[in-house]
Amino acid sequence: MDATAMSSFSKRMIIMAKIILLLYVASAVTTNAQATKLCKPGDPRTCGYGGECLQVKQSDNFFYLMLYGFRLDDFVCLCRVRCYNKPKQLLCNKEMDRTYYNEWCVLQDECIQQAPVSISCEGRCDGECRPRAFNKFRRCGLEVSNPCTYDEMCMQDENDSYNVICKRH
């Protein structure tokens, strides 16, 4: 290869790298779903807390998911829970010393971790935190098949695990 051909090849490689980087950034910015792990369709124990078990090739965000190492035929647990578009109600998890914006942000964190998050009290963890009042319903755990849409929160009766309701903000 002469110098002119090498220069042309280098320019094309730089342009390709920029396009790939642009696609990566665009997919990361436009997605509102986070894939947490592989899951088994129909098994709420592998994708709960508001997550949706979906095949990568059926997702609008398949390119984003593939960039994170998932294959087209994989089933992944997608968390589409959005919380900052809901009313503010600060909640504290004293164990982790973490203040959540509202209960939807707690659900979002549970979905990403696929583990329950306990709320100690209402308010900031670093300020006055008052005891939380319960109304006999709590967020559904992994043992419950979630009938709610991604914009609803699954709530389970503490005394009757078959009594499940879907709560909007």
Helix count from the secondary structure assignment: 3
Unreliable spans: 25-32
Q: Fraction of residues in helices?
A: 25-40%
Strand order of the largest sheet: 5-4-6-7
Q: How widely separated are the two ends?
A: 64 Å
Query: How much β-strand is present in the residues?
Result: 15-25%
Task: Report the major sheet.
Answer: 4 strands, antiparallel
**Integer average pLDDT:** 81
**How many E strands?**
10
| H and E string | HEEHEEEHEEEEE
Structural class: alpha+beta
Q: What's the alpha carbon Rg, rounded to whole Å?
A: 21 Å
**Overall morphology:** elongated
Record keyword descriptors for this entry.
169 residues, alpha+beta, 4-stranded antiparallel β-sheet, 3-stranded antiparallel β-sheet, elongated
Report on the structure:
This protein is of the alpha+beta class. The protein has 3 helices and 10 strands, in the order αββαβββαβββββ. The protein has helices spanning 3-30, 62-67, 103-113, and strands spanning 34-38, 51-55, 75-79, 91-93, 98-100, 121-122, 130-131, 137-139, 153-157, 164-167. Strands 5-4-6-7 form a 4-stranded antiparallel β-sheet. The radius of gyration is 21 Å and the shape is elongated. The chain starts with a helix and ends with a strand. The relative contact order is 0.13.
